[in-house]
Amino acid sequence: MIKNILCIFLGLIFLSGCDKGNNDIDPPTCEDNNSLNVITQRNFEMGFSTWGFGPNETDKEETYQFIELNADIYSEQIDDKIPWAAWMNNSTLPTEFTDEIDNRVSERLNNHKLVLSVSLLNTDRSDLLEDYDGTIPNYASLNDTNIENAYFKHLDFLIFKFNPDYLVIAMEVNELKLHSGAKWTEYKLLMNNIRGKLKIAYPNLPLSESITLHNWFNPEVANPTDFIFEISNYVNQNYEFIIWWAYRDYDKLWETFPPEYKDVGKLWRDTGLLDENGTERPSLTTWKEILEK
User: Fold this and answer.
1) Rounded mean pLDDT of 165-185?
2) What's the pTM value of the predicted model, to 2 decimals?
3) Is 126 a domain residue?
4) What angle do the packed helices 95-106 and 145-162 form, to 10 degrees?
5) What is the pLDDT at residue 213?
């Protein structure tokens, strides 16, 4: 079981605001009942991922600056590729990988807790994430020893570099059961072994795996009740913080997406607390009010 599932909402947290100038947004109790009164003293941390709103370095810098001023925690997501061959052969790591990691480490925000999220799985969460040459390692079972040892080295390296406060050791893992169900048992065995090694090496580091909410409670499978039961049993719902995926609409970044990723990129493109022009939405006011509690 996941010992400590951490609260990572990809634009799904309920941040409501009253818009008196828009007749389409007119909650009947908006004038008389402030939903923020439910939270009298905040006992959780609030932050954002470092997902930028544009492709340029200045856009990335602006993202870190916003997080520094409007959060007490943030998330770095490492989900591009895994240098499998280098870990397995004890060879030199790809420069593309080390440069990216060193660049992110150089942006480490002081006085902010860090959630380091690492992806084991590929984009559609059906198999292992590819290496820098586009291949994945050969395996008979997902929990093969060579996979386990290489992935532990990968996580160990990233922990050393980032020194995170929380570690997500694999992302959106329920999608694997959905897309490659035969590998699910092997995955659980792999994670159990990885988690055991990490607990020995880093006994005070909270560990977790992330899941997607939409395919947890509304899976498109033949037996949704069994699926929900299995995933729910794997998850220990213990929420400690909130991470908002994109603080600002990323239209500029979306325009650079390859055609095959344009559709899926639209899902979260317009979920920012600021719009694509940097104009604040009412939800940002709500965010700040809760942050100050």
Assistant:
1) 96
2) 0.86
3) yes
4) 40
5) 84
Domain span at residue 41 reads 8-291
pLDDT at 134: 96
Q: How many CB atoms within 10 Å of residue 45?
A: 20
Token readout for 93 is: 């790591």
User: Does the pLDDT at position 207 exceed 90?
Assistant: yes
Token match 């970044």: residue?
Answer: 253
45: left (phi over 0), alpha (psi -120 to 50) or beta: beta
Give Cα 204 to chain centroid, integer Å: 21
CATH no. for residue 147? 3.20.20
Cα distance between residue 24 and residue 125, in whole Å: 38
In a domain, 77, yes or no: yes
Cβ-contact 85, 91 below 8 angstroms: yes
Structure tokens at 126: 């059906």
Q: What b-and-e string marks burial along 120-144, b requiring 16 or more CB atoms within 10 Å of the CB?
A: bbbeebebbbbbbeeeebeeeebbe
Residue 1 in any domain: the answer is no
First to last CA, the chain: 33
Residue 3 placed within a domain: no
Percent of the chain with pLDDT over 90: 75
The total of structural domains in the chain comes to 1
Task: Provide the pLDDT for residue 16.
Answer: 26
At 7, the pLDDT band (50, 70, 90 cuts) reads very low
Which H or E run includes 90? none
The whole-number pLDDT of residue 215 equals 86
Burial class (CB in 10 A: 0-12, 13-18, 19+), 195: middle
Residues near 48 by Cβ (< 8 Å), separated by ≥ 6?
Answer: 63, 66, 67, 70, 71, 74, 75, 243, 244, 245, 246, 247
The C-alpha atoms of residue 48 and residue 15 are separated, in whole angstroms, by 14
Within the chain, strands assigned E span 8-9, 45-49, 73-78, 113-118, 166-168, 207-208, 241-244
